[in-house]
Amino acid sequence: MSTPRTPSSAPDRRTVIADSAINLVATAGLRGLTHRAVDSAAGLPAGSTSYYFRTRAALIGACYQRLAELDLGDLEGGGALAAAPPDREEVSALLAGLLHRWLTVGRERQLARFELSLEAARNPELAPELHRAGQGARARAAELLAALGADRPQEAAELLAAWTDGLLYDRLAGALAHSRPAPDLAELTATTRRMIDAVLADTP
Q: Where in the numbering of this chain does the HTH tetR-type domain appear (predicted)?
């Protein structure tokens, strides 16, 4: 006899909708993001998406929050640099592993994130939601950089986030996206070590 599924054993409907919306943006762009299309992609009854997210802006805001949740989950996933104070090698390896993941199995999610971010640049109503969504990962990065001795960890985290986004964009959608070799973890680790050293350049 099968065990009934409890509410905690499956994603809630808002999460299912947000995940489906993100996948639609990754594959069809923002033109494919409609309430009806999300219902179909999520396998939900017609009208489900509009019930939870009445407007397109609300649906996009849910995507921002879900993307931030997933990215922060990746950051906290792989050990999260345990209890002992981290060193530069550990943080470089963590960041390289994240980049490798986001350039390979997480590629579609990052493409959706870039496209949804551009929508916020065109629609001021969405900008505050995007800003809030991006704070979690930056706060965690600031904590790690502070543990490495950064004099101004928040500034260092913002710079590191900008470089990380630039690298992701270049590899996923930039001019070299189709001519670069497949992401190599050793190469990414060397790159992230240079990034960490640079943001900590004023730190003894």
A: 11-71
Q: At what angle do helices 107-122 and 13-28 cross, to 10 degrees?
A: 90
Question: What residues contact residue 118 under an 8 Å CB cut-off, 6+ apart?
Answer: none
Q: For the domain that residue 82 is a member of, what is the CATH number? A: 1.10.357.10
Rounded Cα distance between 101 and 95, Å, is: 10
Pairwise CA distance, residues 74 & 101, whole Å: 9
Would 1 be classed as within a structural domain? no
The Cα–Cα gap between 46 and 35 comes to: 9
The single-letter DSSP state of residue 173 is T
Give dist(CA 22, CA 2) in Å, integer. Answer: 32
State pTM to two decimals. Answer: 0.84
| 156 found inside a domain | yes
In a domain, residue 154? The reply is: yes
The count of structural domains within the chain is 1
The tens digit of pLDDT for each residue in 50-64 reads 999 999 999 999 999
Give me the pLDDT at residue 204, please: 57
CA dist 113 and 78 (Å) reads 22
Q: Is the residue at 2 inside a domain? A: no
